[in-house]
Amino acid sequence: MKTNIKMKILAFSLAMLCLGTATNAQTVADKIFDKYSGTDGFTTVYITKYMFDLFRDAGMGDKEDEDMAKVLGNLTGIKILAADDDPATPIPVNLYQEVMKQLPVSLYKELMVVKEKDQDIKFLVREEKGKVVELLMLVGGKDESALICIQGIIDMKSISKLASGMNIEGMENLEKIEK
Hints:
Elements lengths: L1 H23 L3 H9 L5 E7 H9 L5 H11 L1 E9 L11 H8 L5 E9 L2 E10 L2 E11 L3 E8 L6 H8 L13
Antiparallel strand pairs: 1-2, 2-6, 3-4, 4-5, 5-6
């Protein structure tokens, strides 16, 4: 009988250990958001699944609204981290360089790179079981530094429509994905 109790305790302990490990698994983007969230010189925005559900559940008028609702229904969150563009606040770090140093390159695929005069924009995706589950957009340059992370099951054909409909600074760069 004591062996049975010990086995239950052992099984419960292993289950809690596995659960703790699974919930603590963070992507590089998550770690960087946590590091800079609430820090002077940075603005962070986190759009939750609940917000997407509210948008999705709002009246559906036409086919385009239904398509957008389907895209939103598969997303779990969008995180935006940007260095403030106030001239009095110097950009403390280049998010582009910091993410690229920490990024496990074997887990991410480069989707697109845009090089402009004083700015680089890189789009990266992470796949699981053949589906895109994370889209990163990194912006690095002399005057601008930003990271946008979209998580969930991501339909790459519809992501540019999502970007144009959200009207959030930085998201307009996602429109460049449209082919």
